[in-house]
Structures are given as structure tokens and as C-alpha cells.
Amino acid sequence: MTSNGKPLPLEMTAARILAPNQVAVERLELPKPAAGEVLIEVARAGVCGTDIHILRGQYELARLPVTPGHEFAGTVVAVGEGVLRRRVGDRVTVDPNVACLTCDECLRGAFNQCVDLQAIGVTRDGAFARYLVAPERSVYPIGDLSFEVAALIEPLACVAWGLCRLTLPSGYSALIYGAGPMGCLLLQALRTAGAVRVAMVDVVESRLAIAKELGADAALTPDEARRLDTFAPSGFELVVDATGVPSVLEAAMARVRPAGTIWVFGVAPEVSRISVSPYQLFRRDLTLMGSFAVNRTFPEAISLIRSGAVRTEPLISHVLPIEEFREGLEVAQHDPSRMKVQFSLDGTR
């Protein structure tokens, strides 16, 4: 391991999920980068819906106990043997999904479907700690982007992967259920991908106000959803569920235009089920599409933010120190007006 000569601490503060609904903030030994890995000093890390599913024991990929956190940015402070492209001092973010590169899925380019997929903050310790290790091949430079903005690159890369899977006509209309951070990222990214009209539905009016600020043509509560009949009389070419609520997804299917697409983006508990009419899928030429995580889409996400096409600052509502891990999770789960909750690991607010 090589660093810039600055001595590193022997221990660090880390927030842990020990078992379902059991958390702790602990002192852990500093990790050391193996060959091909870098050590990153984390500055900012965001709470994702997946973290909440892990907390509740609802995410089958997770391996507990674990330090969660997979949306983050920081600085490389040490590198392992064989690291060639990253240097101490680089300001970076990380694709948390670590594929094996040798299974059948990886060999056909479906890296997010790797049969031995590892994920920082899910199967291996993540960013709700002052330091973490990551493979060099997963690390992306962020240049002069702020750490709080760069910590939203991973969520946007998830959106970008779904966009890669869509086939839509130019000038399409879109409806997004859920105006939280992911819904607002979807809104902006769909604009760049040719949507001429985008409507949003959410139960929280403060979120709808942010969606309007970011360019939504209509931002409605469920009680106002009848206005969608006027907004798009024939239905929407694309309907996206960004809530992960099965009943919302079922309702969304009634809003899609014939030959349109329903995009399952929100993460529902693994045991959830929905009722779908196979006849309607057949008769109306509908496409029901899911998208999971990211697949080599960090460069696209970085470009969208750097170009100004996607704004992330309005999406950050709460910043807490990692010592207030429990409080941050409470906000993320129960505060209806919250947007993105981030933990500051470097002491900045």
C-alpha cells in the first residue's frame, strides 16, 4: 500500500446494520487496499431506498452485518499494488457493483446480472464509514464536482441504465409516480432523452413543488390525478413507477398508451406481488420493463451532471454527521417531506 506520506489513522467510525432493524455506530480497524484496490476517504454518502430495505431485512442480496452506503464520493488516500490509473489525491466516486467478469452474464455484457455479483454497501462494507476500499476498475474521477453533488452520480447512473433499455418514439410523453430524489432525477434525464411532456404524481406537495422547479409540466397529488386525462387524453407513451409500492404500480398501468411502456424502477420488497392482466399486455401491445442498478453507465451520469442537464442540489434535504446514523435513518423512513438524506463524513455541512 502506498499513500502520500500522510499517516493514516488505525481506526475509524462506521455505521453498521448488524441484523434486521438493529444498527450501531462503532469504531473499526481501518481497511487496507489489496492489490488492484484503492483506499478512499469518504466525504459524503447518501441514503438510498435499498439501504432501508437492507435495514428491514427485505433485500435478499444483502449480507449482514454490513456497513451500508453505496452512493458516495471522496478522495483516494492510498493505493494497493498494481494500481495504475488512480492516484493519491484523486477526487472520486465509485460504481458499487463489482462483477466477477468471468461468468456467462458478464461475458455477454450483463454485468449487473453477474451470478457472483458483489456490491459495496450490500455484500461488502460501504460508505457509511470514514474509509472504504474499492477496486480500481470501479473508481471514477469527479474533477471539481462537489462531493455532495458527486454522491448522487450513482442514483443517476441507475436512471441512465434504464434509459439505455428503453425504446421510445421521439417527442414522447411520460408520467412518473413518485417525486422523491429518484423521481426528480428521472424527470430531468427523460427530458434529455426526448420527452416533450412529463407529469409527476406524489402525495407530498413539497416534493411536487421541487418537481415543478426542475421542469415538470404537471405535478399532481393522487386526488388531482383525474387532470391527467386532459394532460394526456390517450395515455402516456411511458409510465414510470419510482415508488416501489405495488398498488401504485398497478394503478400506473391504467395510464399507459397503447404500444407504450411501463418501467418498474422503484424497489419493492422481494416478496411483493402485483396483479397484471396478460390480456391487456397482449391486446394493447404493452411493454413491462424493469431496470436493475447500473451497467457501465457512470460516464453518462457524470456527463449529465457536469453539463448542467441534471441538477442535484435541490434534491439534498438533510445532511447529518455519521454519528447521527439512527436519526438519519428515521428521517429517511418517516419524514414525508424529506428528499435525499446524506451523511457528512468530513465534517462539512
Span between N and C termini? 31 Å
Q: Per DSSP, what share of the residues sits in E-state strands of 2 or more residues?
A: 25-35%
SSE succession: EEEEHEEEHEEEHHEHEHEHEHEHEHEHE
Helical amount: 10-25%
| Structural class designation | alpha/beta
Low-confidence stretches: none
Name some characteristics of this structure.
single chain; 349 residues; alpha/beta; 8-stranded mixed β-sheet; 6-stranded parallel β-sheet; globular
Describe what this molecule looks like in 3D.
With 349 residues, the chain is an alpha/beta fold. It has eleven helices and 18 strands. The strands form four sheets. Strands 1, 4, 5, 6, 9, 10, 17 and 18 form an eight-stranded mixed β-sheet that branches. A six-stranded parallel β-sheet has the order 13-12-11-14-15-16, sandwiched between helices. The chain has a two-stranded antiparallel sheet with strand order 2-3. The chain starts with a strand and ends in a 5-residue tail after the last strand. The relative contact order is 0.16. The model has no long low-confidence stretch (mean pLDDT 96).
Brief sketch in words of this structure:
With 349 residues, the protein is α/β, with parallel strands linked by helices. The protein has eleven helices and 18 strands.
SSE blueprint and pairings:
Blueprint: E1 2-3, E2 11-19, E3 22-29, E4 37-46, H1 49-55, E5 71-79, E6 91-94, E7 97-98, H2 104-107, E8 118-119, E9 131-135, E10 139-141, H3 147-150, H4 153-165, E11 173-177, H5 181-192, E12 197-201, H6 205-213, E13 218-220, H7 228-231, E14 236-241, H8 246-252, E15 256-264, H9 278-283, E16 287-290, H10 298-307, E17 316-321, H11 325-334, E18 340-344
Parallel strand pairs: 11-12, 11-14, 12-13, 14-15, 15-16, 17-18
Antiparallel strand pairs: 1-5, 2-3, 4-5, 4-9, 4-18, 5-6, 6-10, 7-8
